[in-house]
Design brief:
Elements lengths: L1 H20 L23 H8 L2 E5 L2 E2 L3 E3 L5 E2 L1 H12 L7 E5 L5 H6 L5 E2 L7 H4 L2 E10 L1 E6 L18 E4 L3 H5 L9 E4 L2 H9 L5 E5 H9 L5 E3 L7 E8 L3 H17 L1 H7 L19
Helix pairs in contact: 3-9, 3-10
Bound molecules: glutamic acid (GLU).
């Protein structure tokens, strides 16, 4: 009985994936230019979104290489590209994505309240967050690092912070803001809502260091005109997941299927090459998804 049910579910997923892969308004691998009908299990989030023809996706707006909103409103970054792959598999054209800015602290709340359908936003999978939401993925593994002004050689790692009186900036509700408490006194830690404010504070010498994931820092360095550098000594592992509603297991598993498919058919590598690949040309191999 159990075996048969699994086979049927497998067949439905296979059908959905095959249908999504052919035809439609876009190129073979690219984003859809117009919506298209995809057959999903009735009542699923995938079916609802496909019928609605639009999707609300939470991401970052100020993180070069991963999630950045340009002055003309164009979205770019690795997270943005991964999100577009998911949208296209839902049969939704990139132009019908509503991008919602989700700073670190509000991501769980945005998912819980239904302000977004899913979140792709340098979002570390961890158990505390899993109490409120669920994660597909991981699709990438980052590591916490430290960024300083290029002419500053006094900070060589997180160990040089304690007792130094130096100020370190991070973002409220982020994993790096928690972790850095092990290495710095409370009075040394400055928290903003977004990382671009930390970068401004570093430039203006209001703080001496910024700590978060290496890939976020890499983007800030790339945009700093030589003013900043990263220590390149990551001291944590940050597996990035895609946040969905806690009880929506079907949607989570379907996104896992999409990630695996994109990793195999080259869309994952393409997404990297046209975004973060500009700063790091080594295309990562996608970590194994965790179907917990
Ligand atoms: N990956 C870490 C987190 O999810 C830091 C990056 C961020 O704040 O988005 O908290």
């Amino acid at each position: 009985m159990r075996g048969r049910k699994l086979v049927l579910v497998g067949a439905a997923v296979a059908l959905a994936i095959t249908t999504a892969a052919c035809g439609g308004g876009g190129g073979k691998k690219g984003d859809l230019t117009s919506n298209k009908k995809v057959n999903f299990p009735a009542g699923s989030t995938m079916a609802k979104l496909n019928e609605a023809g639009k999707v609300k996706i939470g991401t970052k707006f100020d993180q070069p290489l991963f999630g950045l909103k340009g002055l003309d409103g164009t979205m770019e970054g690795f997270d943005v590209e991964i999100a577009k792959v998911i949208a296209s598999e839902l049969g939704i054209a990139a132009s019908n994505i509503q991008w919602v800015e989700t700073p670190s602290k509000i991501r769980e709340e945005a998912i819980e309240k239904g302000d977004v359908d899913f979140v792709v936003a340098t979002y570390t999978i961890n158990d505390k967050r899993k109490e409120r939401i669920a994660f597909a993925g991981p699709y990438y593994t980052a590591g916490q690092d430290i960024m300083v002004r290029s002419d500053d050689n006094s900070i060589t790692g997180p160990e040089s912070l304690k007792g130094s009186g130096k100020k370190v900036c991070s973002v409220s509700g982020s994993t790096p803001a928690e972790k850095i408490k092990e290495y710095a006194d409370e009075s040394q830690i400055v928290l903003f809502d977004v990382y671009s404010k930390c970068a401004d504070a570093l430039k203006d010498k209001q703080v001496d260091a910024v700590t978060t994931d290496n890939v976020i820092l890499m983007g800030l360095v790339a945009n700093s005109n030589g003013a900043f550098k990263v220590l390149s000594k990551p001291f944590t592992e940050e597996p990035y997941g895609i946040g969905v509603a806690k009880d929506d297991t079907d949607f989570r598993m379907w996104i896992n299927d999409v990630l695996e498919k994109a990793s195999k058919d080259g869309r994952y590598a393409d997404a990297w090459k046209k975004t973060a690949g500009k700063a790091d040309s080594n295309v990562p191999s996608m970590p194994a998804v965790n179907r917990y």
